[in-house]
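A protein record pairs a chain with a discrete description of its three-dimensional fold. The shape at a given residue is found from the number at the same position. Here is what such a record looks like in full:
>
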Amino acid sequence: MSHPASPPDGRRWPALVFICLAQLMVVLDVTIVNIALPTAQADLGFSDGDRQWVVTAYTLAFGSLLLLGGRIADYTGRKRAFAIGAVGFALASALGGAAGSFELLLASRALQGVFGALLAPAALSLIATTFTETRERAKAFGIFGGISAGGGAIGLLLGGWLTDAFDWRWCMYVNCLIALAALSGLGLMRESRDTQRRRLDIPGVVLVTGGLVAVVYGLSEAESEGWSSGMVIGMLATGGVLLIAFVLVERRTAEPLLPLRVVLDRTRGGAYLAVGFAIIGMLGTLFFLTYHVQLVMGYSPVKAGVAFLPMTLAVAVSAGGIAPRLLPKVPPRALMVPGLLIAAGGLAWLTTLEPDSSYASGPLTGMLIIGFGMGLVMAPAINYATHAVRPQDAGVASGTVNTAQQIGGSIATALLNTLATNATDDYLAGQATRAGEPAVLREGLVEGFTTAFAWASGILVAAAVIVGLLMNTPRPRRDAEAERADADSVPVHLG
């Protein structure tokens, strides 16, 4: 039986502002802490070897629990999950800001990851269930995609300013202010949930959480231990086995944690792959250019953060301005494939960097090209990650796209940093007669950075080919009918 479509919520656009604030908090928390790490290390006295755990504690918890967080949001209500996630993230951040020991800082970072894994899919699924008209949906996801793509650069700017002007602890405390602002818009959001009484897929939870922990941990340790390390190989193999077992279990269980229909759809599957690959290019750019402008060009943390602002603006123009206008008229791959190729071109430009390259001719040009390309990728990819998904699966579909981002980020950090470090070591080994000269060290660093940029560019070209071949071209009329049919067949409560 067909039901008339409910009228659009008049508060949806103001609500989007507060939902995007929560997403910004989750995204910038990765890079804002990177800027603060040297000062925090000096204050708390932990070793260089332990430093990576401040980042890894967050990524492990966040990446491994996203699917569970998305399903909890589906069952308990996305607005409720959003509120719990934002409050928990704020409290964990306050704990980290007040930490007097390395152990307490690690615990707070892990808690941030736990609550972030609930907050991020809840935020995305709230948009998916709030904006159903094609043009409005494209615009809303364009804004959200811009935040997802540019939040890392904003984190660098904010982290540098807070660390210089106040203290590294404010890189944690600032989340409390952002969370409070996001929660103030809670009354504008409509609750939605799957009203069918369901059992939680415990075997699926155990397998996917264990598998993702093993994969993310293995990738994180590859940077320091090397890819041939028995521990790294063992963790990656264990993760692969657990994830294969997860797929087999999900095929047979009546109420799966992740219904395979969510990822096997060619349009959504292509969107997940595009997000994962795009993050490799984006984080690779942010990670190595952050070091380049500070260690090679001599920028302060604040100046380095300001240097990334043009990239954020380029993302905003393409994700918030161009993509939403084109998306209702063209298939998603018509934006995503060119976007990946444009970003690959920007990374190729960065391979020409020299130790004496100016900001305008080197980093600025590359960042503008990459940012513009990334906006064309992220806006349609995040939109179509929840495209035509059954209403009861909105949360877990949102968790899946966040998982793709997290795995892509882990691969970017581990793979590209390994390639860059090896290239730098090889260059310095060949310059033994000039060892100790500051110019040689800068040359070696640039050699490593440009090697990483070259690999990242190649990865994005390959991604463009894969996405172009994999994604189909959904027809708007059929998609709208499919969404209405799904909505009619499944009881979903809107309150």
The mean pLDDT is 83. Residues 12-190+257-477 form a domain with the Growth Hormone; Chain: A; fold (CATH 1.20.1250.20).
